[in-house]
Every structure is written in C-alpha cells, then in structure tokens.
Amino acid sequence: MKGKRTPPKKDTLSRLSASFRRLVMPLLAVFCLQLPMHAYAQANSVPSIGDDARSALTPIQEYKLGRYIMIQIEQDPAYVKDDVLNEYLFVLGNKLIAADPTIRGELVNDFTFFGVKDRTLNAFALPGGFIGVHTGLILATETESELASVLSHEIGHVSQRHIARMIAASEKDILIPIASAALGLLAAAAGAGTDAALGTLLAGQGVAIQKQINFTRDAEKEADRVGFQILKRAGFDVNDMAAFFQKMQHATRLYNDAPSQYLRTHPLTSDRIADAEARARHEPYRQHADSADFQLIRAKARVIQGDMGGGLYEAEKVFAEQVKKGTRYQIAAGYYGLALIALQRKDPALAQLRLDEARKIFSDTVNRQSIALNVLAVQIAMERGNPADAIRITRNAIDHFPSSRAMLNLHIEALNKGHRYDECIRFLRKMMQRYPEEASLRKKAAGIYAEMGRKGLMHLSMAEYYHLMQANETALEQLNLARREKDTTFYDHSLIDVHEREWKEEVREAKKK
Fold it and tell me: Is 0.85 surpassed by the pTM of this model?
C-alpha cells in the first residue's frame, strides 16, 4: 500500500551529513591543493617510484593532504586517544623503519602510527605516512611478528607512494564518491527513503572502489614484497606474514565479520599467500620473542573496545581466563587488563592490587621500562587524589624515556591536578617547541591559563590551537578576543598582530582556491 513518504529523522540526516563529510572533505583537499593529475599509460603495471606519483602529488603535498585527513580522523569518536596504545604502535613501527632507513623513500616527515576503535580486522595507510590500525586487528594477532607484518606492509605502501599513484590513476574516478554523496543527501532531504539515500552513497563508493581494484591488487603485491624485506631486516619471524594472511582468509568465529572490510581495501589472493610462503621458505628460521608490552597492549585494546556495559564484562571474563590458563606474559596481561577495568570502574584500590600482581610476574627491568605499567601507576595515583605521587612517577619516567608522549602528557595532567600551574606552563612551552604542530598542547595550555585567570593568553592559545586545526576564521575570532583582554601585554599584542597578518593571508588564499 502506497502512502505518504515519511521524511527521514533528524539523526538519519546527521548520519548522512557525517558520511558526506567523511567522503568529500578528504577528496576536496586534493582539489584545493590544485594538483596536476595524469592517468597511467599502462593501467595494470606498477610504475617505478617517482614518475607518475611525483607528477600527481609531491611529497610535501602528500604530507599536507595526509595531515588534513588526520585532523578529521582525530575528531572522530573511533580515533583512539590512548597514548599508551599509540606509543606502542609508534615504537614498533619505528623499529621496522630503523632496520632500513632508506625505506622512508621521499617522505618529508616522520611516520605516524595510531589506533582506531573498531572490531574489524583492518589497517590502512594515508598520504604522508599516517598509518592506522584497528583494535580488532591487534586482538587478532597472536604474535608480535604478525602485528609487525601488518605494519611493514603498510609502510611498504607509503615507501612505494601507492596513494600518489592511485590519485594519478583515479583522476576522473575521484569525482564519483563526491557526486554520489551529494545525491544521497539530496535524496534524504527530499523525503526519499533512507535505504535509497544510503544506497546511493554506497553505490558511488562501490563504483570507485571497483575501478581501483585492478591497481590495488598490484600495489598489494608490491607492499607484500617490500614489507617482507622490512620484516626480515628488523629481525621478526617472516613466517608470520603468511600465517596472518591465512588467518584473514580463514577468519575465526570471533572475527567472522571482519575480513570483508579488510579484503575490500587489501584484496587477498591465493597467489599472495603462496608468494609470502615461498619467500619465507628461502629464509633461515628466526624465532622472535614477543616483548612484554605486546601482551599488555592487546589487553589495552580489548578494554578500549569495551564500555561500561557488556563489552567490559566480556573483557573481564577473557582476562580472568588468561590469569588461570595463560602463559607467563598472558597471566601478567590478564592482571593488567583487570587493573584497567577496575580503574575504569573508579576502584583505584583494586586496580593497584591487580597492577601489583602483574608487576610480580615481570622482571625489575620490565617494570622499570614498561610505559604501559608506569602510566597505569600514574593514573591510579591521580584517581586516588595523590598528584604529588603522580608527579614523582612521571618525572622519574621522563628521565628514562624523554620522548614518551604518554608520560609527557601525564606529567602535564599531574602538574595541573596538583595546581602547579607555573611549572606546568613552563613544561608545556618546552613541549610546544619540541612538537610545534601538536594542536592538543595549545588546548592544554589554554586550560591552564584559564585556571590561572590569564584570559588573554587563554584566547591566544586557543587561537593557535584552531590555526593548527586549519580553522583559521575561528582562530582569528580568538585573536580578537585576546586583544580585548586587559591582561594582554605589549609582547602579546605584537604576536597577535603577526598571527593576524599571516592567517588572514591564508584565509584569502584558501578562498581563491
């Protein structure tokens, strides 16, 4: 029976708008860069590094595009903001890169590794060396070499500049997702059925993906070859690359819905598995002992995927089983996971007991060097209302690990909670000099200045935060607010004037493009 069409609900339109932004904004960034695009002469060949890729996207443009996409990702709830997990991925990834520094190729910046809260088995490389790993994939790996094989594969994509090549090969196809997303929004706004609107969006994506699939098959094979060499030189077990391919193809019952997403972006064929097995057969067997942090990070990923409902309950059961029947490191990771859950449930006393159990299993060296264990100790101290203990732990840890972002951020938080604002600001300024593009440091500084009643510096810090987030018009508004505050000094006014001139010019250039 035909009736009057019901307009889609507001949350449906919001979801479609979010889909539109996710699809269109990164693609629009390509056009804003005003890049010359050239299709391949031979569609099925994998070109040598630097020819079509360089003509499509310079390394600097590639980084700018990747950074733009990362700004969008960092605002998504699925982006893992956990410093411990991201730092582990960073350390593991850079261990692979350090084995052969030439693998950086033409990359003009450091690699960035980050987690994504998602149960599916997936990992991906963005332009400019930004590599994301789903928590579901971390949990699916049984050895550190398996996880390293995934990272080395993604590093291979970056090294061979596959994204720049894909842009070159997709000069026209890149318009398809934009057009389909716009049509999907129009259909929803006009009162068409939600399924029809979503269907339009997905159909456009499907067409674009299908047009790229022949290219990506070749790119995947090349990333396998490069990734295998990276894995070998870094001292990991090369047999685990083929082992993880097999795991993806014959997904276990726990991950029976996972391969579809990974295989859409990483077409897996029997040839690829056979190639990986053949390469491994020609190498002498080399056993790689997993680090203590590998099992701890798997526990961390399981908790991140959970919540205060059934997710944490299921994780708790897994950890309890590990404590009963696991290997030595699995038992320690089980206690660590139980400590994380206790802390999330606001029970720091129980969290401390579970952490102590984990520490008994590890050696003094591991207890001293593990970022995961030390960060949890700091978090427990702060939850107990002991910022002085937290400051002491973080200061000692920073002496041993001066580059640990997890500890640096916790030290800032501990100083703030201890009301040591002047010391906190001095430390933040050092961090901002070391990491000038880290927007979150400006936002933290703004919060400290607000606590101190320094409104002018608060607005100035927020202006710098919005500028780094590529929201220049909002940044200029914050500059105006800073200029009006009575506590703004002559030096502050000079800096405001400099920022205003530069950012207004950036706004004008953006509008021209």
Answer: no
